[in-house]
Amino acid sequence: SSCCPSPRAATESREQRASELAAMASRSALLPLSLLCLAAFVWAAGLGQGFVAPGLASRPASRTLRQAEAEAAAPAKKAKKAWVGPKKGSTVKILRPESYWFQMKGTVVNVNQKPEV
Predict the structure, then answer these.
(1) Can you give the pTM of this predicted structure?
(2) pLDDT tens digit string along 31-82?
């Protein structure tokens, strides 16, 4: 009779193991729950502001607001340079003697605006 445990002893040991597992599970769930509560408290109390750089704390949170501020602060675009030569579509007389069209009239299609030419 000492070689095999009684059914009552086996049941008690199973119950004891089950209660130990339940206790371990409750202890392991307690840590994440307490960390979550701590994080919620810090967020609600505004203590997170102490960890932000002073320049970043005053910036708007919205990306749209930051973009609008950046566009407002951007330097103005350069003014367009004055048009050089006749306007497109106007009729002109060719005055270059080396040109094939010398002394002829024609319509302006393109005017080079680059100063190096």
Answers:
(1) 0.32
(2) 777 888 788 777 776 655 555 565 555 655 677 877 777 777 767 778 888 8
- Residue holding tokens 């307490």? 34
The three-point CA angle 35-37-42 to 5° equals: 95
Which residue bears the tokens 């089950």? 18
Task: Pick the closest to residue 31 from 39, 43, 19, 41 (CA basis).
Answer: 39
Q: Is 106 helix (H, G, I), strand (E, B) or coil?
A: strand
Q: What is residue 108's predicted lDDT score, i.e. its pLDDT?
A: 94
CA 20 and chain centroid, separation: 49
List CB contacts of 1: < 8 A, sequence separation 6 or more.
Answer: none
| Closest of 33, 30, 52 to residue 41, by C-alpha | 33
SS3 55: helix
